[in-house]
Amino acid sequence: MSLADLIDSIPAAEGEPLVTPPTGLSVSFEFFPPKTEKMEQSLWQAIRRLAPLQPAFVSVTYGAGGSTRERTHATVTSIQKETGIPAAAHLTCVAATREEIDDIARAYWDAGIRHIVALRGDPPPRADGSGGLGGFGYEPHPGGYAYAADLVAGLKRVADFEISVACFPETHPEAASADADLEALKRKVDAGAGRAISQFFFDTDVFLRFRDKVAAAGIDIPIVPGILPITNFARAVEFGGKCNCHVPAWLADLFDGLDEEPETRQLVAATVAIEQCRRLEREGVKDFHFYTLNRSDLTVAICHMLGVRAKKGA
Ligand code: FAD
């Protein structure tokens, strides 16, 4: 009996076997601009492993308060040039006039960048560590774009960019209410956004309910789940706390006792993210955005299980 016959003879379990990868999915990868030579090396190591998976696009974040303006520009343009993969630049409203932001956008257009992830941004943290992430303490620049919707409209006036925006399945921490936050998303779409990428989340039902509410509100752009492979559970909890991302007790339990076991932690993290993506896929999600944190191992494994493989010759 050949191996293929042997495999065929194994009766199928009820439901879809996990090992059969889905097809036709599309992925995108988010990176941050490196600060040091060493970080630059690990970024490019990650890009070299992830690029053959032929993501629909990659994106590069913009530091709080515009602190990475030049580095974001350099990273976005060199990724697009070196890999040929469409690269999107994140851009925020923080600490800049409209004219300054329009100039940055024009420079991107002139450099061949056609996709912007348009965000309001968070203020840099205060000296005592308060404010910053999560948005508290945000003050619009007197001559600037106040909210992401204003930025989207401004970008569309500069050039016909493809524009992605942020959305928050668990509601943005500063929003007056979930409905007000949905209205804010609608304004971004009305201003010209063509895709919303979600904040990361661990409770998949929360994303699915949010997707239903978005559809019921008449918002018909793709809502792409942002997937965070957990490289460091404590940091994911800390970051999640600031972004209104609930960490379920079952997730804490899965990572409990693994502080000194990096390899087991890695396997658990991959399993959690794969299960999350497979569930989303069964619910009709076709696009996935990965917060890679400039690492590739977990993202490659998750993509592999989603059937997203290196194209031959890529
Ligand atoms: P907005 O859509 O402007 O909303 C911000 C808040 O204001 C919400 O509470 C909303 O409900 C409210 N609001 C909107 N319009 C109005 C109005 N007219 N009146 C009153 N309230 C209003 N941050 C960075 O600094 N750099 C990055 O590169 C970056 N990348 C990100 C990528 C993704 C995929 C995500 C999900 C977030 C990212 N962030 C980044 C974080 C983001 O900038 C913050 O979460 C920020 O606080 C909100 O940005 P926004 O674009 O959703 O803002």
Describe the structure.
This protein is 43% helix and 14% strand. Helix 10 runs parallel beside helix 11. The longest helix has 21 residues, at 262-282. It has helices at residues 3-9, 37-50, 69-83, 98-110, 148-158, 178-191, 204-216, 233-242, 249-255, 262-282, 297-305, and strands at 26-31, 57-60, 87-92, 115-119, 162-167, 195-200, 223-227, 287-291. By secondary structure, it is α/β, with parallel strands linked by helices. Strands 1-2-3-4-5-6-7-8 form an 8-stranded parallel β-barrel, surrounded by 5 helices. The protein has 11 helices and 8 strands. Bound molecules: flavin-adenine dinucleotide (FAD). Flavin-adenine dinucleotide (FAD) binds at residues 61-62, 64, 90, 92, 117, 119-122, 135, 147-149, 165-166, 172, 174-175, 180-181, 184, 188, 197, 199, 226.
Can you give keywords for this protein?
single chain, 314 residues, alpha/beta, eight-stranded parallel beta barrel, binds flavin-adenine dinucleotide
Itemize the secondary structure elements and their pairings.
Blueprint: H1 3-9, E1 26-31, H2 37-50, E2 57-60, H3 69-83, E3 87-92, H4 98-110, E4 115-119, H5 148-158, E5 162-167, H6 178-191, E6 195-200, H7 204-216, E7 223-227, H8 233-242, H9 249-255, H10 262-282, E8 287-291, H11 297-305
Helix pairs in contact: 4-5, 5-6, 10-11
